[in-house]
Amino acid sequence: MPNNPPVHVSVNDACARHNCSRAFLYRLIGSGKVAAVKNGRRTLIVARTLDDHFAALPPAKIKAPAAPAPIAASSTEEATPVT
Questions:
Q1: What contacts 24+ positions apart, CB below 8 Å, involve 46-55?
Q2: Span 33-69, pLDDT tens digits
Q3: Share of the chain above pLDDT 90, in %
Q4: Max CA pair span of the chain
Q5: Rounded to 5 degrees, what angle do the CA atoms 50, 21, 33 make?
Q6: Inter-helix orientation angle 47-55/11-18, to 10°
Q7: Which residues neighbour 20 within 8 Å (Cβ) at sequence distance 6 or greater?
Q8: Are 45 and 25 in contact (CB under 8 A)?
Q9: 47-58-32-20 Cα dihedral, nearest 10 degrees
Q10: C-alpha span between 80 and 83 (Å, rounded)
Q11: Model confidence at 70, in pLDDT bands (50, 70, 90)?
C-alpha cells in the first residue's frame, strides 16, 4: 500500500510542518493564499495549498558576513614624562 501524504492537516500540524505561528497561518488563510475547510469546530488546512505557498516563495538572498576588520597593533611605547 503506497504511503500517500494527507490531504488535510490540522492547524497545529501545519504550523509544525512549516515552522510558522498559528497567527501567520490564519493570515495566510484570511488572505486566500492557503485553503482551509471546517469539520465541525475543527479547522483543517488543505495541505497541497500550504505546500504550494511555501514552495512558491523566492529564495533567500543572504550576503556572507563581511570579514572582520584586522585588529590594529596596540602601541606599547611608554609616554615620556614632560619636565
A1: 46/7, 46/8, 47/5, 47/6, 47/7, 47/8, 47/9, 47/14, 48/7, 50/9, 50/14, 50/17, 50/18, 53/28, 54/18
A2: 999 999 999 999 999 999 999 999 999 999 988 888 8
A3: 67
A4: 96
A5: 30
A6: 20
A7: 14
A8: yes
A9: 60
A10: 9
A11: confident
* Cα separation, 33 vs 24, whole angstroms: 11
C-alpha cell at 29: 488563510
Quickly count: other Cβ atoms within 10 Å of residue 34's Cβ.
Answer: 22
Give every CB contact of residue 15 below 8 A, 6+ residues apart in sequence.
21, 22, 25
